[in-house]
Amino acid sequence: MDLESQARQLVELLDEKRQTLVLAESCTGGLVAATLATVPGVSAWLAGSLVVYQEASKQRWLGVAEETLAEHTAVSAPVAHQMVAGALQTTPHADLAASVTGHLGPNAPAEFDGLIYVGVGRRGQPPRTWGVELKAPKRVGRQRESALVVIETLIGVLERLK
């Protein structure tokens, strides 16, 4: 599926399940929120997106610990976890949060090139995080692929809600 049709499906599910979403985006630079914003009616369900490219923004806006960044780097599951938790904490009216952080190239360290970490959390439950190796060879394609991963993950979470 393409990014735009998946965004429509996500917004329909947010509406159906009556869930408000907040995002914490790093490597996507707000692309997830921007794509969702093309869907009419999303404002009822999208609380917002914190675009946190720099480590200082991750720390100040989302409460990511300096020690976590020093020990694991900004591209890690622990940082994605803290980003989700921080987004939910700073947005008390949100039911659901997702985060994404990664290296999309072209100047990424070889072991991190094309690697993202995604986090998802529901209010009252511990966040889950995992790594995804992207298939797209170039930066813009990787941004779109990353946004699609986040949106498809959220669709899966919402489809499992009773």
Note down, in words, how this protein is organized.
The structure is a single chain. This protein has about 160 residues and is an alpha/beta fold. The chain has one domain: CinA-like (Maf protein, Alpha-Beta Complex), CATH 3.90.950. The protein has helices spanning about 5-15, 30-35, 55-60, 65-70, 75-90, 140-160, and strands at about 20-25, 45-50, 95-105, 115-120, 130-135. It has a 5-stranded mixed sheet with strand order 2-1-3-4-5, sandwiched between helices. Strand 4 and strand 5 form a beta hairpin.
For the secondary structure, the number of strands is 5
Strand share of the residues? 15-25%
Q: Name the poorly predicted regions.
A: none
CATH topology: Maf protein
| Principal-axis shape | globular
Class by helix and strand content? alpha/beta
GO molecular function: nicotinamide-nucleotide amidase activity
Keywords: Hydrolase
Pfam families: CinA
Domain CinA C-terminal: 5-154
Quick rundown:
Keywords: Hydrolase. The chain contains 6 helices and 5 strands; from the N terminus they run H-E-H-E-H-H-H-E-E-E-H.
Keywords:
CinA-like_C, globular, single chain, EC 3.5.1.42, alpha/beta, Maf protein, 162 residues, Nicotinamide-nucleotide amidohydrolase PncC, hydrolase
Spell out the blueprint of helices and strands.
Elements: H1 3-17, E1 21-25, H2 31-36, E2 46-51, H3 55-62, H4 66-72, H5 77-90, E3 96-103, E4 115-122, E5 128-133, H6 139-160
Parallel strand pairs: 1-2, 1-3
Antiparallel strand pairs: 3-4, 4-5
Helix pairs in contact: 1-6
